[in-house]
Amino acid sequence: MEATISVFTGCAGGYVGAGGVHPALLDAAREAISSAKEAGRIRDGFVSRCGDDIGLVLLHAGPREALDSLALDVFTQARAVAVRLAQHGSDNGGMRIDRAELTVQPRPSEPVLVFLSDKCGPAAWNVYLYRMFADPFNTPSLVSDSALSEGFRFWIGQGESYELPEDLHVFLRAAGAERRCVTRVVSRATGATVAVASDGADPVLIVRAEAPFPKVGEVLEAFAFPFMASGSPLMPVSTNDESTTRADGPPRAIGLGFQVTLDRLIGPRDMLADPSFDDARRRAREAADYLGRHGPFAPSAQPVHASLL
């Protein structure tokens, strides 16, 4: 039997400014998810937050359209609370909702990692997916494990795929230099989708871990260095440190770990709270300070000289 993990994020209103989410909005979302579970619309669900976005992790079976409708209902209820509490941006007409979904046939042990981000921009996960599934210096199992050694298929958008490691250089041009969004990674050994990423402003990433896929520690190792996202370093943080204040940054990422069964999301465990990521956090702060000092002269704001094109 199959189960689908769908992750939605949306901003119903920021507290204070665009840095966080008021607890009352999370309570409204949790109440709506609890009602949906009781009504049989989902098998299980969890509500989280990252920056000013609410995150919904839903376990379900059935058509995508039904889940899109449910997510819209949840965010609409949270938005109603935000309007009542005069939250930042709650008077905007539209609401941006981002989504990623992964369907699995749960193994006897099915570790799934869900990463939420804030202020990152599209394609922020590209380098992390490359590190997880194509870089043996990050993921030694690519060399030592026969299934991982067969490589992975990386999809950019919906119809463009690259076989790694064979297509490594052309893939890096598309996903790195051109910053086109990697949306899916497929195991060539098993044919199973092992990672999916959304392409929104605050993208979502879902990753399966452990044999015949990279180990949990190898997936997380990709976050040991704060790679750039939208012109600023992406800082891995705990679920208690996901809100921004100073200069509205730097961009944040949290990691939620679940053991997934057909009808339960067992967890989450706060995967990026580990003190071993403290050095990445320090590097991110230092890099953000350096870039911030440039003000309007920031490197990301400068045009590329024609001779370099």
Can you summarize this structure?
This protein has 309 residues and is an alpha+beta fold.
**Largest pleated sheet:** 9 strands, mixed
- Counted up, domains total 2
> What's the total number of strands?
15
The Rg value, from CA coordinates, equals 19 Å
Please mark out the parts with pLDDT under 50 across 5 or more consecutive residues, or reply none. 304-309
The helix-and-strand class reads: alpha+beta
What shape does the CA trace take? globular
- The H-and-E topology, N to C, reads as EHEEHEEHHHEEHEEEHEEEEEH
Beta fraction of the residues? 25-35%
Mean pLDDT: 93
Number of helices: 8
Helix amount: 25-40%
Distance between the termini: 51 Å
Structure characterization notes:
With 309 residues, this protein is α+β, with helices and mostly antiparallel strands. It folds into two domains: 1-105, Transposase IS200-like (Alpha-Beta Plaits, 2-Layer Sandwich), CATH 3.30.70; 106-294, no CATH class. The protein contains eight helices and 15 strands. The protein has helices at 23-38, 64-84, 126-134, 141-144, 146-149, 168-177, 216-221, 278-292, and strands at 3-10, 44-50, 53-60, 97-104, 111-118, 152-156, 160-164, 182-187, 193-197, 205-208, 228-229, 232-233, 235-236, 252-260, 265-270. The strands form three sheets. Strands 5, 6, 7, 8, 9, 10, 13, 14 and 15 form a nine-stranded mixed beta sheet that branches. A four-stranded antiparallel beta sheet has the order 2-3-1-4, covered by helices on one side. The chain has a two-stranded antiparallel ribbon with strand order 11-12. Strand 8 and strand 9 form a beta hairpin. The longest helix has 21 residues, at 64-84. The model is unreliable at 304-309 (pLDDT under 50).
